[in-house]
Amino acid sequence: MYKQKFRPLLPDCRQIIYNDVDSLNEITKNTAAVIIEPIQGATGFITPKNGYLKLVREKCDEVGALLIFDEIQTCFGRTGNLFGLETYSVTPDILCMAKGMGGGMPIGSFTTSTEKMHSLRRPYVRTYYHFWRSSYSLCSIIGHTL
User: Fold this and answer.
1) HSE-up of residue 97 (Cα within 13 Å, Cβ side)
2) Three-state SS across the chain?
3) pTM for this one?
4) Fold of 4-145
5) Does the N-terminal peptide bond of residue 8 adopt cis geometry, omega within 30 degrees of 0?
6) Strand partners, 66
7) Radius of gyration of the chain from its Cα atoms, rounded to whole angstroms
8) Which of 24, 108, 113, 146 gets the highest tally of CB atoms within 10 A of its CB?
9) Closest alpha carbon to 55 in 79, 19, 13
């Protein structure tokens, strides 16, 4: 219902059910990426059970899909570790961070390996690898947050 005003949504996107191993069968060779919160925030702070995140990682490796962790809410110590992923010993291909990063200031980050970053580049897409000069003060705040 809440998605209605944003339609049309991206085509061919599917949702898997968190902690449901059978739902991982939705991840196929046609899957480009799986975006998942290591700890589900908006749904009541649901944690992964029975090695679920490791199974997601294995399925993504099996079919060649990127694994993207959305740590918008769980990064920078909000779970007891610097990142929620450390709790479960699963490394994503891409890590998205925000809220806890800026100590209340609006900032976000898309973090990946150099190899993955280069694989995402296309001649027609401009990619920025750096912070703009105007954000030095914001980057300083991140340093103090750590």
Assistant:
1) 20
2) CCCHHHCCCCCCCCCCCCCCHHHHHHCCCCCCEEEECCCECCCCCECCCCCHHHHHHHHHHHHCCEEEEEECCCCCCCCCCCCCHHHHCCCCCEEEECHHHHCCCCCCEEEECHHHHHHCCCCCCCCCCCCCHHHHHHHHHHHHHC
3) 0.77
4) Aspartate Aminotransferase; domain 2 (3.40.640)
5) yes
6) 33
7) 17
8) 24
9) 19
Residue type, 143: G
For the beta carbon of residue 117, count every other beta carbon within 10 angstroms. Answer: 14
Alpha-carbon span 44 to 52, nearest angstrom: 17
Residue 110 bridge partners (DSSP): 96
pLDDT, mean of residues 98-118: 76
- Token pair belonging to 12: 């061919």
pLDDT in tens, 39-89: 887 777 888 899 999 999 999 999 999 999 988 777 776 677 777 777 888
